[in-house]
Specification:
By secondary structure, the protein is mainly beta. The chain has one helix and 17 strands. The strands form five sheets. Strands 1, 2, 9, 10 and 17 form a five-stranded antiparallel sheet that branches. A three-stranded antiparallel sheet has the order 3-4-5, with no helix packed on it. It has a three-stranded antiparallel sheet with strand order 6-7-8, with no helix packed on it. The C terminus is likely disordered.
Length: 200
Amino acid sequence: TEAPRELPEFFWLNPVSRERTWHQPEPRREWDPDKGAYFYVSQDGEASWTPPDEWAWQVHTVDRDDPKWGADHAGREYYVNTNTGEVTWDKPASLAWVKMHTHRTYFYNHRTKETTRERPPGLGYMSHTHGRMYWVGEDGQTTWESPHGWTQAVSGPDSEHPGRLFWHNHKTDETTWERPEEFEWQEHHDPAEVETHQEL
């Protein structure tokens, strides 16, 4: 049997584009002593004296004395692309990358606002093969039945709301369209130490 591949210590997550990668997405900046200037090396190895357009964003803050925006937007951040001259209030995807720890996780319940380092016993696992949740008991055995009784399903074509998720509790025989709090747990990874973006 092939040994499981050891995962890297870190990965990068982009909450704007919803992308993930094991490799640092930001272009590498290096100094050329002969030219006395920095140049940029992209992930595919291409070098350039200017950063790629998608990485040429700089963040600025509206000053309260700004005659156009100061009255209504003082202190608000905006973004300027030094290559294209584009200006936007929305954070560009290239600036949204966050370095995350692969093996340091915590769990947060979006209903109860609880946070814990230990995996909640009622939190299941998604089977991508079967498209449904399963659970692991204290004996290490897997089961389709949750310890709290709730299971997730999709309403059929004859339902009043076809294709909609609903939840049924086989212990209490309760059925609801509202997600139970036991299903509100989500696993999150710890961000690595905050690192400032390279000044482009």
